[in-house]
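Researcher: Structure for this, please.
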Amino acid sequence: MPAKRQVILEGTIYQQRPATYAPLEREDICCVEVECDGLVPVVARGELASQLAALQAQTWVRITGRLVGHQWRNGDRARQRVLEVEAETIEVAHV
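Model: Predicted structure, token format:
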């Protein structure tokens, strides 16, 4: 079972990406990177995916969600790991 921790992430959308339908999950998913002292991967699902996909690059956001870790082995059997934020709320932050 992946480790999950609650986080609040504030930064700018690095690059705008469209939401795409994920047939296995039967919902839209949008994956972007938020820049805040480095690039942090963020995944949004369902209505949040549409909301995130509508934001322009360089938009300042505050995202609350869970920090989720995934690991797997690639074709060469090398272990791969990634941490990402699974969005629960997305706000356009006012600075």
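Researcher: Any notable elements?
Model: The helical segments are 47-53. The mean pLDDT is 89.
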